[in-house]
Amino acid sequence: KLFFTDYGNAAKVERCDMDGMNRTWIVDSKIEQPTALALDLINKYVYWLDIYLESVEVVDYQGRRRQTITKGRQIRHLCGLAVFENYLYTINADNLSILQINRYNGTDVQALARLDNAKEIRVYQKRTQAAARSHACEADPSGMPGGCSHLCLLSSSYKARTCRCRTGFILGSDGRSCK
Description:
By secondary structure, the chain is mostly beta strands. It has two domains: 2-125, 6 Propeller (Neuraminidase), CATH 2.120.10.30; 133-178, Laminin. It has no helices and 13 strands. It has strands at residues 2-6, 12-16, 24-27, 34-40, 45-50, 55-60, 67-71, 78-84, 87-92, 97-102, 110-114, 151-154, 161-164. The two termini are 28 Å apart. This is LRP1B protein.
């Protein structure tokens, strides 16, 4: 799944399959300007910053069990969001410090370090990486990903895929080659 925020005409947090199909709103009320999003892959939670409402909130992958983690004027200065173990990590754009926030109750906020020009944050740790398994976009015997001549996008599961073409090309009737 792909999770993303949108604060165009109607602010929301959404999810869809990697090929863009099955688009689903998971948060569409009491939300104004969601600017950063992080996933807890183990427990299947979505965290986001709303800089207009000055809040950090969380829901499960279906949009249920919504909770506010923290609120306050300091939220409008945050950018980027990552989750690891018991904490959320974000950047304070005012002083470019990395902040650690307890993700269960919003307390225990600590500035960890200062970085020049930081706007985004990611946590890379072996335990947060999903184990690789065979999938529909693996290279076929001729080296084409999922048998697609240009792009292979995972669909509703790791066993299903959709072929797409680069700009200026049209997908052929075989659903795999681009012309």
